[in-house]
Specification:
By secondary structure, the protein is of the alpha+beta class. It has four helices and seven strands, in the order E-E-E-E-H-H-E-E-E-H-H. It is globular.
Length: 164
């Protein structure tokens, strides 16, 4: 039975890494949510992200659902193919319309192809952690970049921790 207390939108985002830099993109001023803010590619999980492909087990399960979703979103939003997709963290928030949302933040390597922005995005930059501070990022994006920077340096980042 459907239980609204357990229903969420599921979203996957991806910090794309290339040559030690992170891809950020500026949302179009026409976007309803966070217009003009800088972010990383991603979007809502869609049933087609797994239901349009064969099951991975006899029990009719699919593996790598978030990986497939973020692979699609990155391709749609910035035109890149990605590889070596890995988990970074998860975030929960309630949208302005009251819908609870879970974001699974992943990271991956760029395949090196040329960026082609979707109409939802106005521009992009490859930045290091210090450079990222200069951009008007959506809340939480800088902290994710900070976590990923530590991961890439081999430091312990088992869970996000608020810094004072």
């Amino acid at each position: 039975m459907y239980d609204p207390e357990k229903a969420h939108y599921l979203t996957a985002t991806c910090v794309v890494v290339k040559d030690g830099k992170f891809l950020i993109a500026k949302r179009s001023e026409k976007e309803k949510n966070w217009p003009g803010k800088w972010t990383v590619p991603g979007g809502k999980l869609e049933k087609k992200d797994y239901m349009d492909r064969p099951h991975d087990t006899e029990d009719k399960h699919w593996y790598n659902v978030f990986e497939g979703s973020v692979r699609r979103e990155v391709k749609e939003e910035v035109g890149l193919d990605i590889k070596n997709i890995r988990y970074l963290t998860s975030i929960a928030f309630e949208r302005d319309d009251g819908i609870p949302t879970i974001i699974v933040s992943l990271y991956a390597n760029s395949d090196g192809s040329k960026i082609k922005l979707s109409p939802e995005l106005a521009e992009y930059k490859w930045v290091n952690l210090k450079e990222a501070k200069k951009y008007d990022l959506i809340a939480g994006i800088y902290e994710e970049l900070e976590m990923l920077d530590k991961v890439l340096k081999g430091e312990d980042t088992s869970e996000w921790k608020k810094t004072e």
